[in-house]
Amino acid sequence: MNEEILKTIRERGLLLEKEIYELVENFGSPAMGKEFLENLEKVSGQKFITKNILNKNYEYVRGAISDMPGDKNVLEKVFVKLGLSVEVIKEKIVEQPVENRKMDYQLFYSDTKFGKKLEVKDFVGHFRSRYQQLQKILMQRPELKENLVSIGKIGSDRATLAIIGIVTEKRITKNKNLIIRLEDLTGEVNLLVKFDKECFSKAEELQLDDVVGVRASGSRDILFAHDIFFPDSFKFEKVRFEEDISVAFLSDLHVGSGRHLRKSFERFLEWVSSEDEQAKKIKYIFFVGDNVDGTGIFPGQEEWLELKSMNVQYEKLAEYLKKIPSRITMFMCPGQHDASIVSEPQPIISQKYAPELHELENLVLVTNPCMVKLIEGEKEFKILMYHGASLHVLINEIKELREIKAATCPAKSAKHLLKRRHLASSHGVSTSIVYTPNGKEDPLVISEVPDVFTTGEMHRADIENYNGVLIISNSCWQAQTPFEEKTGNFPNPCKVPILNLKTRELKILDFRDDSEVDDSGTWREK
Which of 108, 135, 311, 422 has the most CB atoms around its CB within 10 Å? Predict the structure, then answer.
């Protein structure tokens, strides 16, 4: 085998079945083989690459192989030997008419692999790349195109200009004005925002490490703000599919918890497998994290667990999911309670603790966050799934969210993530979101605006429409816990949003069993 591919295998600690070697050798170039193996490891989360791994990640393999140049007859023979579908490599040769193409999907996992000791340069590269990613977005805003300069080129004479910078400091003066320190790749400057300016409310909600654009006047000594612009998300066209199908959204099952709502969830499972016309239209289900309750998540948790082992919790979860019809494709990302590292982005749920999940043919395990693109012909319907650890930080730090008690309406908090085009802009403010830099790019930047942004974490169903993006905050399947009771959090359990991709009609169905839990989420003692 080519030395470059062997080096990749050694560096990433991969093991390949003999037949997989033959497949990679026939790709036409070592660079393609290297890229294929690296991406397959990322998509599957596996180090041992087998024929079964290729079959389970059919969608990735199909896209990767069909795009490769080379002798298709050789590849076809290899695929026949592997027992894989020859259609994988024939797809690009015989194009189906657009109207007859099968509905499909593409996955865009977050980069969760970083196999070396972290150094200062990795964090420097991380923030540099974040700045550059968001700078490109901000430069498209017409309000910033006139007199846009880098901070290092601001002169000593007063002028009106626009800059793009990352927030490194924020403080209030004795006159109740705000001073924001902004930095770009060329320098730093102080921005004064007077309390009587219209943009003062925008300045108040700025978080450390936010990247924003500013229109201001002044010199290199100090700038006076006229307006502040976030990267922001805009969706101008509503995608609708021709096929009459629907997507269901769930999160926070907390299987294994002593207050897991088993009867209510079984009502949902029974319904989704029924002959109900609405149930029969469901083609995809998204599970947005905290799928089990986990163990050792917080002190004293064992006292409240029904299933004490994480392996047993995942066995029970797999038992549930097997009842969902095989025609439905399920996507599942982890949350803080799942068998995955807590820092974000989170890798897929560990096979060590959840082997039964990895064996389910219609379950696709994805990272947190993950962009899923549902495809019909030339149309793409983009769904960004993120469990939502950073929502707590925003609710605590942003005045508007504190005043409306946004824990009860979490979709209003989620819109602030879309506004920033970042899923956790303040680095390291919570142990739940101390994500690992890769030194190349910031994986939590929202590089593409989704059609739907779906979150979990807050245990309440809530819907918002923000600049054309549909925000779906998901309910839970756990009654109010003692901790939630102490903090005054009242869950809104057993609600399932159902989105029709043809009509864009959204319904929220209630599967709550009165014998388990009341409408305010209070557990009915057994």
Answer: 422
Q: Which residues contact 425 (CB under 8 A, 6 or more apart)?
A: 207, 208, 209, 210, 211, 390
Q: What torsion, rounded to 10 degrees, do the Cα atoms 273, 271, 365, 108 define?
A: 100
- Residue ranges and CATH numbers for the domains of the chain are 3-95 (no CATH), 142-229 (2.40.50.140), 246-394+447-510 (3.60.21.50)
Ranges of H-type helices in 388-430: 391-397, 399-403, 411-420
Q: What is the DSSP letter of 221?
A: S
**CA-CA distance, 168 to 427, in Å (whole number)?**
11
Most confident listed range (52-56, 90-94, 463-467): 463-467
The rounded distance, in Å, linking the Cα atoms of 479 and 460 is: 11
> Which positions ≥6 away from 213 have C-beta within 8 Å?
138, 141, 143, 144, 162, 163, 164, 228, 229
β-sheet bridge partners, residue 286: 249, 331
Helix (H, G, I), strand (E, B) or coil at 170: strand
Sign of the torsion formed by the C-alpha atoms of 42, 45, 51 and 56? negative
pLDDT tens for each residue of 425-455: 887 665 444 456 666 788 899 999 999 999 9
CB atoms within 10 A of CB 51: 15
Q: Say which range, 3-7, 313-317, 362-366, has the weakest mean pLDDT.
A: 3-7
Rounded to whole angstroms, the Cα distance separating 87 from 68 reads 14
Token digits of residue 347? 């890798």
Task: Give me the half-sphere count of Cα atoms (radius 13 Å) on the Cβ side of residue 93.
Answer: 12
- Measured distance CA(60)–CA(107) in Å, rounded: 8
Residue 301 confidence class, pLDDT cut points 50, 70, 90: confident
pLDDT digits (tens, 9 = 90+) for 478-501: 999 887 887 777 899 999 999 999
